[in-house]
Design brief:
Layout: E1 6-12, E2 29-33, H1 40-45, E3 53-58, E4 61-62, E5 74-79, E6 102-104, H2 109-117, E7 122-123, H3 130-140, E8 143-146, E9 160-162, H4 168-178, E10 198-201, H5 212-217, E11 221-224, E12 230-231, H6 236-245
Parallel strand pairs: 1-5, 6-7, 6-8, 8-9
Antiparallel strand pairs: 1-2, 3-4, 3-5, 10-11, 11-12
The chain binds zinc ion.
């Protein structure tokens, strides 16, 4: 005969409800489970990736992901919220990575280019496998950005974010807000195409590499130290500036 199931009451707060089945959103509900699982397991089984969770209260006490449920508890699960002062409680997120670096899922190519343009070290390929992304995140201490909830359930991933926006510029805004990057922008410090560091170059050395008209009109040239492409403020620059300013990012 099977052992009887244990029960706990769960309630999820704020945007964590987006991950739940509709009948479980914004209300307490009963969850039945065998044995004494670490609390991370039922949370992910209910659809919420651990990277989105910042605080778990069990009967009013904050607990880590490894806390074992035994039955009869009331569980409250809160998202990452930066604005509240929660210092006395047990924050689940490891301290923010000091110099935020990213690895992006295959469907986020435009966002990768935007983050690089703002100077953030951003690993991206359109043929990454999930397991590669998890490995890169672990070994290079990168934050995973994705719209795939399943990817964020990899145990190797400690820092990650599920992006709600589908439009790349809105995704950029979401990332800047979520990781509080506003003060860290270094526009044009990286190559949007390859993530290489971009450096200013002496104009006299590149005369043969650009059209004569551009050479005559332009003073500021820079080069990617990795793929060696040359950059200068061309005609598309104003349009790009407008796009970024539509989400509150002012380029110089
Ligand atoms: Zn490059």
């Amino acid at each position: 005969m099977d052992a009887p199931l244990n029960h706990a009451e769960f309630r999820f707060y704020e945007e964590l409800n987006d991950f739940l089945a509709p009948e479980r959103r914004y209300r307490g509900f009963d969850y039945a489970f065998p044995g004494a699982p670490a609390i991370k397991d039922p949370i992910e089984a209910l659809g919420v990736p651990h990277t989105e969770v910042d605080l778990i209260l069990v009967d009013g006490e904050s607990v880590p992901f490894g806390h074992r449920l035994r039955g009869g508890e009331r569980v409250a699960v809160y998202p990452v919220f930066e604005a509240f002062d929660l210092t006395p409680v047990y924050r689940l997120r490891p301290r923010p990575l000091r110099e935020p670096r990213f690895v992006l899922d295959v469907h986020l190519g435009r966002l990768a280019a935007y983050l690089r343009l703002l100077g953030f070290d951003t690993a991206y390929r359109n043929d990454y496998q999930d397991i590669e992304i998890a490995g890169i995140a672990l070994h290079e201490q990168r934050i995973v950005l994705t719209r795939d909830i399943g990817l964020l359930k990899h145990n190797a991933i400690s820092h990650g974010a599920f992006l709600r926006a589908t439009q790349p510029m809105r995704q950029l805004r979401e990332v800047l807000d979520r990781f509080q990057l506003e003060g860290m922008l270094q526009p044009f410090a990286r190559c949007a195409l390859c993530n290489g560091v971009v450096e200013l170059v002496d104009k006299t050395g590149i005369r043969d590499e650009v059209p004569a008209k551009v050479y005559a009109q332009c003073e500021d040239f820079s080069r990617c130290t990795h793929c060696h492409r040359l950059f200068w403020p061309g005609g598309h620059y104003e349009r790009m500036k407008q796009q970024f300013s539509s989400v509150g990012v002012q380029l110089p």
